[in-house]
Amino acid sequence: MGTTTRLVLASNNAKKLAELQQLFAPLGVTLVTQGSLGIAEAEEPFGSFVENALVKARHAARLSGLPALADDSGLAVEALNGAPGVLSARYASLFGRPKSDAENNRALLEQLQPFAAPSQRAARFVCALVAVRSTTDPEPLIAMGRWQGQILSAQVGEGGFGYDPLMFIPSLGRSVAELSAAEKNALSHRALAAADLVAQMREVWHLG
Description:
By secondary structure, the protein is of the alpha/beta class. It contains five helices and seven strands. Helix 4 packs across helix 5.
């Protein structure tokens, strides 16, 4: 990789960009969104987080000519056989509703109504991070992070985004939406995956 310091982030999510930029700061890299380079979002046709992250990273690398980083993440609820899974961002659309954080949360609570006990509402946030040096890179770097918790019966907290107000972390006694940005960046599924990927980038790409 030499002196390369720019990576294309295969996302246009401003909150995700800010989170990942901070997590990858130790490497001295700068993340630029694919949208800022005029690159449209890739299709995400697969059923797993890793496969979707890989196709997004290759797409961004191919159209930018730069190394690329992609994140595919979501919520997996055990009682729902891993749903919403890769459809986390548009879960409400499965039930004929517009996709939004509020509608996604409402749909999740409705699907979990038969499961009232906390022990029946085990869930985890899952993050797959993939980095490629080029679209034909035969050795993509892949990291997974998981953050275990339980789904609450109502939203708690004002911070974060997505399913954060419904995700309760028993070891902290708070929902993810009640955590500060610093706490979330230290503990989250994305933080765990990023720490792994940073180590791989140092070893394989000789960054940092």
